[in-house]
């Protein structure tokens, strides 16, 4: 799945922060600190980042059959 543009609970725009979040976490930074720096304060929005599983690279090679 692709990362959602908005938080499912509060509707805040969070999709624009996903690339920066992933880049910094892969460099070894603490995810909580990164979210604080990006201004993601609500726990509903934070869980969107922490619980997201990016499976698009696993699904994309398989074509859709009708």
Largest sheet, described in full? none
- Output the CATH class name: Mainly Alpha
Task: State the end-to-end distance.
Answer: 20 Å
Estimate what percentage of residues fall within beta strands: under 5%
SSE pattern: HHHH
The shape, in one word, is: globular
Number of helices: 4
Specify the structural class: mainly alpha
The averaged pLDDT comes out at 91
Detail the poorly predicted runs. none
CATH structural architecture: Orthogonal Bundle
DSSP, total strands: 0
How does this structure look, described?
This protein has 66 residues and is mainly alpha-helical. It has one domain (1-66): Arc Repressor Mutant, subunit A, CATH 1.10.10. Helix content is 45%, strand content 0%. It has helices at 18-26, 31-38, 43-51, 56-59. The longest helix has 9 residues, at 18-26. The relative contact order is 0.21.
What are the defining features of this structure?
66 residues; mainly alpha; Arc Repressor Mutant, subunit A; 4 helices; 45% helix; globular
Short description:
The chain has helices spanning 18-26, 31-38, 43-51, 56-59. The chain is mainly α. It has one domain: Orthogonal Bundle (Arc Repressor Mutant, subunit A).
């Amino acid at each position: 799945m692709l990362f959602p543009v908005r938080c499912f609970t509060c509707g805040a725009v969070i999709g624009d922060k996903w690339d920066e979040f992933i880049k910094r976490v892969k460099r070894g930074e603490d995810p909580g600190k990164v979210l604080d720096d990006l201004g993601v304060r609500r726990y509903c929005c934070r869980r969107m980042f922490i619980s997201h599983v990016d499976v698009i690279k696993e699904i994309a090679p398989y074509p859709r059959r009708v």
